[in-house]
Amino acid sequence: MRLLVTGGAGYVGSVVARRLRAAGHETVILDDLSTGHRAAVERPDDLVQGDFGDRLRVGGLLEARRIDAVVHLAASCLVGESVADPAAYYRNNLERSLALLDRMRQAGVLRFVLSSTAAVYGEPAALPIDEDHPTRPANPYGDTKLALERALHWYHAAHGLRFVALRYFNAAGATSDGALGEDHRPESHLVPNVLRAALTGEPVPIFGSDYPTPDGTAVRDYVHVEDLAEAHLAALRRLESRAAGESFNLGNGHGFSVLQVIETARRVTGRPIPVRPAGRRPGDPGTLVASAQRARRELGWAPRFAELGAILETAWRFLRQHPDGYSA
Questions:
Q1: Alpha carbons 325 and 180: distance in angstroms, whole number
Q2: Which residue of the set 11, 89, 121, 141 is catalytic?
Q3: Which CATH fold topology does 2-171+223-250 show?
Q4: 190-220+253-327 has which fold?
Q5: Is 141 tagged catalytic?
């Protein structure tokens, strides 16, 4: 298929785009490079720099490149930032995404894969979290993603839009060859910050030590970025075979606390990693662990990287190859 990949110069998007090309798909990457990196696009001719909410630009790409489906990974995705500036998140994640959907409909492009999030659930009522769990987002980031998923259901009913929404838990790791990985400016995710602390000796902040968890720190389900890429490929196959309008969790089904991640990183790197206490961040639930049985059953997807140590080893390889990020 000929695919438009929004956000394809970002962390997950670049790995997804690579996997889609390896599977024989043609890719056009649309990214404004506000958080993505030109160097993360392995084929520079694939990159079109621009805003996915730009109706004129998107319409031209859909028609000129004869796009068959859109894989939508572009979004603002920082929980704390969304709490501080909710308007920016509703504009970018919802308003611009609706503009993208309208332009797709006008061009007759009716297959769509959405990068969604476990943040649609909010504070869990039961663990592990399956897709039937109540959706009560605890922050604007999760709420904008849930609102877009709801809009997709109505576009499916009204216009025949086929979609699959992939609800990631915590994306982590890097490609196995160390070529593509996580490089945010500033970095807010635990795994790259912990590993960078192994290089620099700077203490890692622990945001909250009073959660109702075994060691008091937040627990998350980490899923490898290459496993996420495989799920996008499986979702596209799903859209070829049926008029899907579905959401799937993507996670390993195992939770690890902040302190467990730090201890695993010490083992992987062989280096001491200092820590410092910090207060909870607004909008952060204590525990998020996935049930991904529906994805296993319906998409035929199963994560290859089930061990936290194996996930961190790939991220450590990327950091050692790119100590200054993609600017190196």
A1: 10
A2: 141
A3: Rossmann fold (3.40.50)
A4: UDP-galactose 4-epimerase; domain 1 (3.90.25)
A5: yes
